[in-house]
Amino acid sequence: MTRFAYIRRDGRCVLRADGHADFCPGRDIVCAGASALVCALAGALDALGAQGVQRTLCAGHAAIAADDRADVRAAFTVAVTGLRQLAAAYPGHVAEDTGRVPAQETEPTAAQRPGAAPALSPEADSKEKRRHEYGKHPHEPAPV
User: Fold this and answer.
1) Global pTM value
2) Measured between alpha carbons, how far is 46 from 67 in angstroms, rounded to an integer?
């Protein structure tokens, strides 16, 4: 299961995603779609010249943060909307989380790497959000 969370707080936008979708091991189009959205966000922030960018992109974990401004927020909105669409289409493989973690934290700790990182709290629009418990996620090496 890929879990993701988005938050805007203290002048920062933060997106985290953890785990693998496990839709079709070796040919996982759902995981590839989620990865493409997150990588596109990272590229968009570079193209926009976003300030205060922090990023971690590795197999099974992504965390991207940047200083909040209108164009940066729009880039995050596109990525998060795509992730929400994946979650709606593949509910057993992608889910949005509603837990909390400090907005400035973007690096996974050793305790987070084997399973999943703690979640972030999305904005107040929680009518369609659900609480999710973290389970174990297989972490495979990145393809070469």
Assistant:
1) 0.68
2) 13
